[in-house]
Write a structure and sequence with these properties.
By secondary structure, this protein is α/β, with parallel strands linked by helices. The protein has seven helices and five strands. Helix 1 packs parallel to helix 3 and helix 2 runs antiparallel to helix 3.
Amino acid sequence: SSDLTGELLWLSIRSRPDISYGVGMMGRNALKNPRWSMNLGVQLLEFLKGTPTVGLVYGPCVSSHGEADQLSIPRHDRLLEAFSDVSFAPGGERSIQGIVTCLAGGPIQWESSRQAFSVLSTAEAELMGYVESLTMLMSAEALMVAITGEPNGEGFEKVILGDNLSAIQIVQKPDGPWRTRHLRLRANCLKEKLQLGNQWRICHVRSEERRVGKE
């Protein structure tokens, strides 16, 4: 079980982000329920066997608003995007978040992980995903600054995209009802970034329109 999990993990972090969720489930259950984890791994192997031509494809950046014209900001060579989504408390446990960061429309970093602690609502879970997206974008920006030598990453535009309007409004609006005060406090670091102007943005994209690139 552990060996199979490690082998599939190696593949998921290099060319098959589409199996990241399943690999994460295997890792969380490898010791608690090894037989279940092994069965899941076999299913993932069968999926991989049936999709041998699926993988990441990189090419020149095409300036567009996405394949379905769903993006509010057109893609360009210096655009860093983070697509975030959360499954709120599946099975009554901690929420699972999935994040993909892209440069010029091409995926460069992704994760599927269980959130660090339990939350009380979908909006709070999504908000935690947006804050984690901020961290991933900052790391991607630091890498691009090191590669290009451009100081402070001022030439890179960063945008976080999610489908939860409530969480986005908590970040964008400084005021709100007392019931959301703890969420606004949690979002302070992201709000500070958004106040820098056009360098950082957060945008809504509908669930069915979150295809980020070609496979």
